[in-house]
Write a structure and sequence with these properties.
This protein is of the alpha+beta class and 295 residues long. The protein is built from eight helices and six strands, in the order ααααααββββααββ. The strands form two sheets. Strands 1-2-3-4 form a four-stranded antiparallel β-sheet. It starts with a helix and ends in a 5-residue tail after the last strand. Pfam families: Med27.
Length: 295
């Protein structure tokens, strides 16, 4: 399997080189005679240059043929299911359905992966034991729901957290009373829009400071999309129905560690960048920065 992948990678690289050199041929033909060819014999120089480019393309084409011949043959036809009928469509709008279908499959795979991770994190918190305690003990008082609290309770909690971090700005908004949407500006680094459901964090999206405050639109920057994914994981990790105020404080303390997003090196590899990204993960206990590949 590994050998097949190496051969496929070699064939793709050969095709990439071929396309690059073919583009050079077309650029040379479109530019025609240039000033760097000189005044004397410029037609001959142009022809020699074009011959060299065509010779290079011919050699690249031979490399592609050799790389493709080394690939292992598929045992049978690919099973595409009903998607094979998409190739019979003649309208341009329906021909684009296959690309959209592939994107939907990728999106579904990501949803399954994130759901599995979230399920493991939630399973680590023993909710059943908590509810069992209430069912077996003397029912002196019905526990207060964390989703139905007074607005003043949430405001007091946010105000107390705001006093802990002088370099963080909290801007509350209440489009749907009593559940607020808090905009957190972390220095000059980033901003986060956090939606609450009572005393529990329901949704988080991280963006650049210049982007919109739309809660359901992700950032156009990959680094902030990665931070958003990690915030969702941390939101599930710190989730505690019995101590929601402590869960919110723990999450805010963890989120504050992103104040060093662009200047703290990775704790494992010691580099600032990996795959053109800074360390976008913060350890849930030590708050140390790690790259996604190093955590």
């Amino acid at each position: 399997m590994e050998r097949d992948l190496e051969q496929l990678n070699s064939a793709l690289n050969a095709i990439k080189v071929l396309r690059s050199n073919v583009r050079s041929v077309f650029e040379s033909v479109s530019n025609g005679l240039r000033a760097d060819h000189g005044d004397e014999g410029k037609e001959t120089k142009f022809i020699y240059e074009l011959q060299e480019l065509l010779t290079t393309v011919n050699n690249n084409l031979r490399d592609v043929e050799n790389a493709v011949s080394n690939l292992s043959q598929q045992a049978g036809p690919f099973s595409l299911g009903n998607t094979t009928y998409l190739s019979q469509e003649t309208t341009q709008e329906r021909q684009a359905l296959y690309g959209q279908l592939v994107n939907s499959y990728k999106w579904t795979d990501k949803i399954r992966e994130y759901s599995a991770v979230a399920g493991n994190i939630l399973a680590a918190n023993s909710f059943n034991k908590t509810y069992k305690t209430y069912s077996t003990a003397k029912r002196r008082k019905t526990p207060t729901s964390n989703h139905n609290v007074a607005p003043e309770v949430i405001e007091n909690l946010i105000s107390s957290i705001d006093r802990l971090f002088p370099d963080v700005t909290f801007t509350p908004n209440r489009p749907l009373v009593p559940n607020p949407i808090i905009q957190i500006t972390l220095g000059r680094i980033l901003k986060a829009i956090i939606a609450f459901k009572g005393l529990m964090i329901e949704w988080v999206v991280v963006k650049d400071r210049s982007e919109s405050n739309d809660l359901w639109t992700e950032s156009r920057y990959k680094v902030f999309r990665k931070v958003t994914e990690n915030c969702h994981a941390a939101m599930c990790h710190f989730h505690s129905p019995m101590m929601p105020d402590l869960a919110v404080r723990s999450f805010m303390h963890w989120f504050h560690s992103y104040i060093t997003l662009f200047n703290a090196p990775c704790k494992r590899c010691g580099n600032h960048l990996n795959s053109n990204l800074p360390p976008t993960w913060r350890d849930l206990r030590s708050l140390e920065p790690y790259h996604e590949e190093c955590k």
